[in-house]
Known about the structure:
- There is one protein chain.
- The protein has a single domain (2-110, 154-318), classed as P-loop containing nucleotide triphosphate hydrolases (Rossmann fold, 3-Layer(aba) Sandwich), CATH 3.40.50.
- It has helices spanning 19-23, 56-63, 86-95, 103-106, 113-123, 130-143, 160-172, 190-207, 218-224, 242-247, 252-259, 301-304, and strands at residues 2-16, 28-41, 45-49, 71-76, 79-80, 96-99, 178-182, 210-215, 227-232, 235-241, 310-313, 316-318.
- It has 323 residues and is an alpha/beta fold.
- Helix content is 33%, strand content 24%.
- It starts with a strand and ends in a 5-residue tail after the last strand.
- It contains 12 helices and 12 strands.
- Adenosine-5'-triphosphate is lined by residues 13, 30, 32, 50, 52-58, 216.
Amino acid sequence: MNLLTVKGLSKHFPIRSDFISRISHRELFLKAVDRIDLNIRQGETLGLVGESGCGKSTTARLITRLIEPTEGEILLNDSDILSLKKRALKKLRKEVQIVFQDPYSSLNPRKTVYQILGRPLEVHGLTNNRREKRARVVQLLNMVGLGSEHVDRYPHEFSGGQRQRIAVARALSLEPRLIIADEPVSALDVSVQAQILNLLLELQNEFKLAYLFIAHDLSVIEHISDRVAVMYMGKIVEMGNTETIFDSPLHPYTRALHKAVPLPDPRAQRPHLTLKGEVTNPINLPPGCRLESRCPEKEKRCQAEEPILTQRGDGHHVACFNI
Length: 323
Ligand SMILES: Nc1ncnc2c1ncn2[C@@H]1O[C@H](COP(=O)(O)OP(=O)(O)OP(=O)(O)O)[C@@H](O)[C@H]1O
Ligand SMILES: [Mg+2]
């Protein structure tokens, strides 16, 4: 059964929304996420990959309800999380947690680890007294490979990798079923990246966690994902099992991502695509395929018609006419 089901989810940001543009119905929108469908089963990892600006973080923020969608449905265990009112939303917040890319800015520098990890426990009434709270904080630290000696320290006293461990511990504190990890290792040194990835895999095994794992680095995605969704300009263009996406990708964009050369600096590892041609303006989208202007395999139809995500094999979906 699906833990998370996303149907027709969109987020359109108004980019010029003054009075004149509104009354003349000429308001312009950036379609950051545009009618996407995806699902995540209990205990599995769906990798989400694509170039900078394609809508990955917006998707993450929509699923955690940090922002409201323009349209669409988000179901967690079949209940529609968009219709939840205050109390039910608080319960959802417990089940779906997020880990951000930058552990330097995601932890409050003025709070100790005890305060950072203890706060969610308090808010959700999970501890009855100080002793219990402290014991649970130490337990959470142990889960992520840190110890009781770290409880009263501040974030600046830790390395980047250790801080990300604290962020993971915070995400775990409410015993969620789904963790959205938005580029959780992109800001870390390569040597530390593997440690955090392995930690996430161990925790997944232990707690049957599901992950939506966002990254632009394909090797990271391959290492951690059971299935992969490839995003381009607000759309999922291909989705399938990790082996399928890596061994026999069908979409021209996925194939270009595979051929991309990583930049030498691992922290700035944005794929350098081999695709030629101009990137389509995301604000004034043409009626056809969004990749058309850059696609080496385009045909006439691609300019006029938008390909929809279609099943091409067992669990393999592709949005392209030319395959
Ligand atoms: N609050 C906002 N208001 C207006 N536009 C936004 C807002 N948030 C994101 N966008 C735009 O939406 C698009 C998608 O952004 P998003 O952050 O989801 O991309 P991303 O795939 O996470 O990129 P990156 O790999 O760089 O993190 C971008 O063009 C971005 O500028
Ligand atoms: Mg992002």
